[in-house]
Design goal:
This protein is an alpha+beta fold. The protein has helices at 2-11, 48-55, 81-88, 116-135, 139-142, 146-157, 163-170, 181-187, 257-264, 282-288, 297-312, 332-339; strands spanning 13-20, 34-39, 67-70, 73-74, 96-101, 207-219, 238-248, 315-320, 346-353. 32% of the residues lie in helices and 18% in strands. Mean pLDDT is 81; it is low at 189-206 and 272-310.
Length: 360
């Protein structure tokens, strides 16, 4: 089941309908949109070899600086295509309608991209970062032979994805992940697990640091259907959290996806009461505030209490990983081992409803 799930992830693709921006069309009639299947684990700039010949005869003269947008939002080229889709399409749009530009690169929003070389550089650096989180160093990635590095990159950039080639090369990096909890229950049901230590292949003692990239989209509006979710029209609305999850599995307990999210977003999950018996209630603080206290520390404390109250009453509306909306009770080890990206990061998209607070 393990390899079958990974194979599904590697073969995952998103149907794209790519339109050339009207300001760059120089022919009549304008070219029809290009229809492309984009690998989830791939990157938009890697599609240029298919897109540029299609639109080439319609472009104005000048130097190509290719970039993509969705509903006016420039898309970050170093983020995997599947992650962009999961994040920006709460209600999946198929085909996903994107606009391609060959001019006017938005340098105020996107860092420069020099084509495939920039994407490869970004991928290798991400792999180094993941290796450092997992092993405490990135020597194995730094010491990769040139041929292995080329083969690894080709296995990722290939339109169809080549899982066998990827596994053959990536296994040399010795980036051990956590043992699947299902496997542990089968293999060690009669054995007790004691102490803590690094993950081993037997899976009897498991701890680990899992590289996670979390995209949190906060909304104030409530909605029941994903099609009613507000659009993301600015990257400032997204909180990007690059943080490892420390996995500690105890005997008889399963470290779940919910546990991982609690670790990543502790402000949204707390078992502590908002107010202790010894501390004054929010209503009392508001009643005791005078006009002279308006700019005082006490007013600041009230605002902090209000903020804490809001975050503790936040509601997770959506968790999406590799296009899947898993139940929060699923073992986190299964999620990591089956849904991580080729750079060894687990990308998670989360929509959180945070009620608005009025401190006036």
């Amino acid at each position: 089941m393990h390899m079958e799930a990974r194979k599904y992830v590697w073969e995952g693709a998103i149907p794209l309908q790519i339109h050339l921006h009207e300001s760059e069309v120089t022919t009549l009639p304008p070219p029809p949109p290009a229809l492309i299947l984009a690998p989830r684990i791939g990157y938009l700039p890697l599609l240029v070899g298919l897109i540029k010949p299609y639109f080439g005869s319609s472009l104005p003269p000048g130097v190509d600086t290719i970039w993509f947008e969705y509903k006016g939002l420039p898309l970050k080229w170093y983020t995997p295509t599947g992650v962009l889709f999961d994040l920006l399409c709460a209600e999946p749009e198929r085909p996903w309608n994107l606009t391609v530009h060959f001019r006017g690169y938005p340098v105020h929003v996107l860092i420069p991209c020099e084509g495939e070389d920039s994407v490869k550089w970004s991928f290798i650096n991400s792999l180094k970062e993941a290796a450092y989180i997992i092993n405490g160093n990135c020597k194995n990635v730094m010491n990769m032979s040139q041929s292995d590095q080329v083969e690894l990159w080709r296995s990722v950039m290939n339109v169809a994805g080549n899982l066998e080639a990827y596994l053959r090369v990536s296994s040399k990096l010795k980036l051990i992940t956590v043992e699947d909890d299902y496997t542990v229950k089968l293999n060690s049901s009669s054995k007790s697990q004691q102490g803590t230590g690094e993950t081993d292949f037997a899976g009897q003692v498991k701890t680990g640091r899992i590289p996670v990239r979390l995209y949190v989209w906060s909304v104030s509006e409530d909605f029941d259907d994903l099609e009613d979710a507000p659009d993301i029209d600015c990257w400032d609305k997204i909180s990007f959290i690059n943080r490892p999850v420390e996995v500690h599995t105890e005997e008889g307990k399963c470290f779940t996806l919910r546990d991982a999210i609690k670790t990543l977003l502790p402000e949204y999950f707390t078992d502590k009461p908002l107010f202790s018996d010894e501390s004054p209630k929010l209503e009392d603080e508001e009643m005791n505030l005078s006009s002279e206290d308006a700019g005082s520390n006490k007013n600041t404390e009230v605002e902090e209490i209000l903020y804490e109250h809001v975050t503790r009453n936040a509601e997770i509306k959506l968790v999406r990983i590799q296009g899947i909306e898993p139940k929060l009770e699923i073992p986190f080890s299964w999620v990591v081992n089956n849904l991580m990206n080729p750079d060894y990061f687990l990308y998670m998209c989360i929509c959180v409803r945070v009620p608005e607070v009025n401190t006036v």
